[in-house]
Design a protein that fits this description.
The protein is α/β, with parallel strands linked by helices. About 30% of the residues lie in helices and about 15% in strands.
Length: about 450
């Protein structure tokens, strides 16, 4: 015992060190087993996964461009549902909680619910999945009569199934905040958004007007079409476009009809029956005149590129100021390709002198005619959402023409083709305002509907 007592003073520093290490080890072990630790981590995980109000998990692991859901019944009862946690991400910061990227689970990363950063994969807006969302639609198809054409307001027709309204697009590897019209208008303060293209561009324009007003009657929104020469000409069915301004934020949203994105000039201005020069290598005069006033530009073209349309409109292809003599270029597909490349090249050349401008080219909106075309008995009677799949897994665009034209330019792609191909139940179909049988519309979309998601992707990329 004397030996031990004599040795104790020299061993005390070592004993204290060992005791401290043992104590720290016990505390760490106890902390890991403490329910408080689990509660803290669970709270942080809930904050990072709150982007989805309802996230459906398909079980098919196919590598095709779209994944089919053979295991899903009509009610979606076999989908795994994860409810949203009160939009916590939009109003709170995970960093405030003291969390770090290391706390994010691999499941969260793979689902794309963590916002993009330098340490995460790049967000691909065209790659992702359709997910059920109980907060949809973003506006009422009954009430948005001020901006929405009756022929596209399916709530006013004889259609009785509106399940297509209850989905939103969730891109891979990114977290899109829920659309709020007040924050959108604040972001677009003193800015002008211009849609230039065909009737699908007009649908996107009407969709954004309904979104920005909540579908509510808004007498304070000003019609400023005259500022852009958008007035109804004598004998015309409608003006060439519309422009509206929100006075509180000085935000202007406009649409101009240019189905081919080429400059159309009558060969004889005094003759209403004159042929019209369709300048494939020249942007529309409207775009050249007002480009300096735009802050966001969204172009589209596609479905008017067929012989029937050209003949009906009396459009005659011109290149370099004279009738086109190149037979290969005269082929519809080649003419369309040539025109898209021409206008993209022109817009790209204008961007250095318009540094405030963000230009987008929207890819083609898909058609879903079955057993014929629009004039040969084709139809689209599906009312089952996502019957052919819910997910897009391919990296490239399904619109290779637009994707190729934008390569190497600063014009951005608004890629909606593949994600819209999955939504065949969202078209106008056989329904109409008057309830009379007629041609099925498997080209245009019911509103509220798919074009709302196009606008959400546009806003996310701004």
């Amino acid at each position: 015992m004397k030996v031990v007592y004599n040795f104790l003073p020299r061993a005390r520093p070592l004993s204290l060190t060992l005791a401290s290490l043992i104590a720290v080890t016990i505390l760490l072990w106890a902390f890991e087993r403490n329910p408080f630790g689990t509660i803290l981590l669970s709270t942080q995980e809930r904050y990072t996964t709150s982007s989805a109000e309802f996230i459906a998990e398909p079980t098919d692991n196919s590598s095709n461009s779209t994944k089919t859901n053979d295991n899903i019944d009509d009610k979606g009862s076999k989908w795994i549902i994860i409810e949203e946690v009160n939009n916590a991400v939009e109003n709170s910061s995970v960093a405030v909680l003291g969390s770090s990227p290391s706390l994010f689970s691999e499941k969260q990363k793979s689902d794309g619910n963590v916002a993009s950063s330098s340490t995460n994969k790049v967000c691909n807006y065209a790659k992702g999945r359709w997910v059920a969302d109980s907060s949809r639609p973003l506006y009422s198809g009954f009430q948005c009569k001020q901006w929405l054409s009756e022929m596209w307001a399916c709530r006013l027709t004889q259609r009785f199934d509106f399940s297509y309204e209850g989905y939103r697009w969730q891109p891979e590897n990114c977290n899109m905040l829920k659309f709020k019209r007040s924050s959108f208008l604040r972001r677009m303060q003193n800015k002008t958004i211009a849609f230039i293209g065909d009737s699908l561009g007009r649908q996107q324009f009407q969709s954004l007007m309904c979104m920005a007003t909540g579908g509510e009657y808004s007498p304070g929104v000003l019609n400023v079409g005259k500022e852009y020469g958008l007035i109804k000409a004598r004998g015309a069915i409608r003006p060439d476009g519309w422009a509206y301004r929100f006075p509180k934020t000085n935000t202007t949203i406009l649409y101009y009809w240019s189905a081919s994105l080429s400059d159309l000039v009558p060969l004889n201005a005094s003759d209403r029956a004159s042929d019209i020069a369709m300048h494939l290598d020249r942007p529309p005069a409207f775009l050249r005149k007002y480009l300096h006033r735009f802050d966001v530009l969204v172009l589209n073209t596609g479905h008017h590129w067929n012989r029937g349309k050209l003949k009906a409109n009396r459009w005659v292809m011109h290149v370099n100021g004279k009738p086109n003599e190149d037979r290969k270029r005269a082929e519809i597909a080649n003419a369309k390709n040539f025109t898209i490349h021409s206008i993209v090249k022109w817009v790209d050349s204008q961007l250095p002198s318009h540094p405030h401008l963000k230009a987008f080219f929207r890819t083609i909106s898909p058609r879903h005619f079955l057993n014929g075309d629009w004039n040969t008995g084709g139809s689209c009677d599906s009312t089952t959402p996502l019957s052919s799949g819910s997910e897009v897994v391919q990296d490239g665009s399904r619109d290779s023409v637009v994707e190729g034209a934008l390569k190497g330019t600063k014009v951005k792609i608004l890629d909606i083709t593949a994600l819209s191909e999955l939504r065949d139940e969202g078209h106008i179909s056989r329904y109409s305002i008057r309830g009379t049988p007629g041609v099925n519309d498997c080209l245009h979309w019911c509103l509220p509907g798919i074009p709302d998601s196009w606008n959400e992707l546009l806003i996310a990329q701004l």
